[in-house]
Write a structure and sequence with these properties.
The complex is a heterodimer. By secondary structure, chain A is an alpha/beta fold. Chain A has 13 helices and 15 strands. By secondary structure, chain B is mainly α. The longest helix of chain B has about 30 residues, at about 95-125. The chains are: A alpha/beta, B mainly alpha. The interface of A and B includes residues 11, 16, 77 and 102 of A.
Chain lengths: ~375, ~325
């Protein structure tokens, strides 16, 4: 036992003492590689690694090779903080990429802000994350934005004028989407007729749907999760409602079609990216991702890739590795051509970019249209 | 004369941790400081669970639940009541900032401990009628109940988590809390009452025949354990600055149980195990994605080494 402890102590000294000096530039990544959301973290890491592999093949950043330091946070907020402190204080990375989940980003971001190290999160949608400070950015859209996108899509593309809204009241994601949808739709000149609500876990929606139907809307906006959407769609069709149903990225699950069946045919929802988007950026990315990992990238991999690319672009424009200068350049990101859309960073350090609208056709989810903000 | 010496001793302890804090924040890399603080918090948790599991022999797996109570209660206090107290201290009593935050966090720690102890009492009274596996399952269930209740409370952020908690935890507070936990539990188990805990562990029926009020002592151990778990939770909350109920699942409880089992019955053992098990994942960052695999292997190896030593003594 004592011998073992001795070995442990020596090993520890060796590991902690081996801070190699080299000419590489270090970029830190913290991700949930183990724990309950490990699939998200793995996907994000793959996207980021692919991005920097390509960048290094093209000569690296400002003439230096990029060395990624990936740290696992076991899907725990307190471990996320440790990982970020390690990346910044021990490895002295120039910038940090991560986390997928808002709960871990909220634990890690204050440390980046305090040390003036820019952080770009690929997929944390909670508005509070970027409110932490001026060094924190994101490349995904936040929840309210999707409401705006769907309102524009409904009004301009589908030519709808009279829409009802059906909200999950206990869920602030759903309420946020609904509020912004209504606001934008009214501004455009449309009419919101009938607002009804349900709570997560309900299975009976006929009462609300009957009220909605009596107002004769052209479509219903349902910003809920896939668990209820399928049932709502079935019951709406039973009551004889024929118009399209609209939703947000909460619909993004095979369950929507599985439960909804023919009831969700011809419905639309917004999402971050579509794998059958014909744009060449998307198809090129999918090809190289498949070559390297042998699988189709999911939304997390795409957002990870875009986060890395946006950061690299900012470092190029800053032509410096100083935190403050990278921050400046990141804040001025305009129209960067990413896989998940053209990214522009607004004054709140959130991404303004296109969302894709997907259509459900013959039981499959298909790319329909990109909607610019 | 004795009381003067006690006061002097207290002042000396305070000064010691105060200067230690200054020294470490100046000269130690914040990354190592962070690990040190987590290690200290785990020491508090392991020692407090040691009293329940190892000394009194009541197998509890709900420690994370009590941590959560302490963490959320103290965070609520410093976030909502703290600013009011701060303006009262600085404007009305003209305290300097340092003393103001000293008192606010001091109160927060006491409140955290007391509320957790209260929760421990409520949970302990019905549950401690059970024994062995049944007790373990029941405490595990209660831990989860506490967690899910907090998850559904909107005043503490619910599913989105509790943000913007002020960072108060430092080596000074950590040192005081570890020292306090050690002194209280260490002295307790070597006192007459401590013998009663041991007697219950060895044979409950025999202990009862000797006139020990077993329910009282079992609940007592549980309440004291919960108190310090709450303090540990409060320190964690004010170190990370953000709370989410996912940090307090039963896996967290199991981590603490592992520390106690690895450390054996003694307090020193539990404390050492807590330190080793906090350092280990950090040291193993070297292995990147295989880190947790290697961690588990080392854990098995440590347990085997422990078992051998157990047999030989």
């Amino acid at each position: 036992m004592r011998k073992f402890l001795l070995v442990l102590a020596v090993g520890m000294g060796l590991v902690m003492g081996c801070g190699k000096k080299s000419d590489d530039v270090k970029i830190g990544v913290y991700a949930s590689l183990t724990g309950n959301t490990a699939t998200f973290g793995e996907s994000m890491r793959k996207g980021i690694e692919l991005a920097f592999e390509e960048i290094n093949a093209q000569g690296g950043l400002l003439g230096k090779k990029v060395r990624l330091i990936v740290e696992d946070d076991q899907s725990k907020p307190e471990e996320a903080k440790t990982a970020v402190v390690k990346l910044i204080k021990r490895d002295r990375v120039v910038a940090v990429l991560g986390e997928v989940a808002s709960s871990r980003s909220l634990a890690g971001a204050p440390e980046c802000q305090r040390s003036s190290v820019p952080m770009v999160t690929p997929a944390s949608t909670n508005p509070k994350v970027t409110e932490i400070g001026d060094y924190i950015f994101r490349v995904c859209f936040i929840d309210p934005f999707q409401g705006e996108v769907m309102a524009k899509f409904a009004y301009q593309t589908l030519g709808l004028r009279r829409v009802a809204v059906f909200t999950d009241v206990k869920n602030d994601y759903s309420v946020g989407l609904a509020n912004y949808f209504e606001k934008t739709f009214l501004e455009l000149g449309g009419k919101i007729i009938g607002e009804e609500s349900y709570s997560e876990g309900d299975i009976e929606f006929r009462a609300q749907l009957t009220t909605i139907k009596s107002q004769k809307p052209e479509a219903i906006f349902i910003p809920g999760y896939y668990t209820e959407v399928g049932l709502i769609a079935r019951q709406a069709r039973e009551l004889g409602f024929q118009g399209p149903l609209l939703g947000g990225d909460g619909w993004d699950s095979p369950k929507t079609v599985e439960i909804g069946g023919s009831a969700v045919e011809g419905c639309f929802f917004s999402n971050h990216y579509a794998s059958d988007d014909p744009a060449s950026v998307v198809q090129d990315f999918i090809r190289s991702f498949k070559e390297k990992y042998g699988e189709v990238p999911d939304a997390m991999a795409v957002l990870g890739y875009d986060a890395a690319r946006v950061l690299a672009d900012a470092i190029h424009r800053a032509s410096s590795f100083q935190g403050a200068k990278i921050r400046e350049a990141l804040a001025q990101t305009k129209g960067y051509e990413g896989v998940s859309g053209r990214v522009t960073i607004d004054q709140n350090r959130n991404a303004r970019k296109a969302a894709v609208v997907l259509k459900i056709e013959n039981g499959r989810v298909k790319f329909f249209k990109r909607v610019e903000p | 004369m004795k009381s003067i010496r006690q006061v002097l001793f207290c002042v000396a302890i305070l000064c010691f941790f105060f200067f230690l804090n200054h020294f470490l924040t100046l000269y130690l890399n914040p990354y190592y400081l962070q690990i040190l603080i987590y290690a200290g918090i785990n020491v508090i948790l392991a020692i407090s669970l040691n009293l329940v599991n190892a000394q009194t022999g009541q197998f509890s797996m709900g420690h994370a639940g009590f941590m959560a109570v302490g963490a959320y209660a103290s965070a609520f206090f410093t976030d909502r009541v703290g600013p009011l107290l701060h303006s009262f201290f600085t404007h009305v009593l003209a305290f300097p900032d340092f003393f103001s935050s000293f008192f606010i966090f001091g109160f927060a720690l006491v409140i955290a401990g007391c509320l957790s102890a209260g929760a421990g009492f409520i949970v302990g009274l019905p549950v401690l009628r059970l024994r062995g596996d049944y007790l373990a399952i029941a405490t595990l269930g209660f831990g989860e109940i506490i967690r899910v209740m907090i998850l559904n409370m909107d005043v503490v952020g619910g599913a989105r988590g509790f943000t913007d908690i002020p960072i108060y935890t430092n080596v000074f507070w950590l040192g005081l809390c570890v020292y306090g936990t050690w002194m209280v539990i260490g002295n307790l188990i070597h006192s007459t009452k401590g013998r009663a805990f041991l007697a219950i562990r060895e044979d409950e029926v025999a202990a009862e025949c000797m006139g020990i009020h077993t329910t009282k002592y079992k609940v007592g151990a549980f309440v004291i354990g919960a108190f310090f778990a709450g303090v540990g939770g409060a320190l964690l909350a004010h170190e990370v600055g953000y709370l989410h109920t996912n940090s307090f699942t039963f896996l967290r409880s199991i981590e603490i149980v592992v520390m106690v089992v690895l450390g054996g019955t003694s307090l020193v053992g539990s404390a050492l195990a807590a330190i080793v098990l906090t350092l280990l994942p950090e040291v193993l960052r070297f292995f990147s994605e295989y880190r947790m695999v290697v961690y588990s292997l080392v854990l098995i190896f440590l347990m085997l080494a422990r078992a051998k030593k157990w047999k030989s003594t």
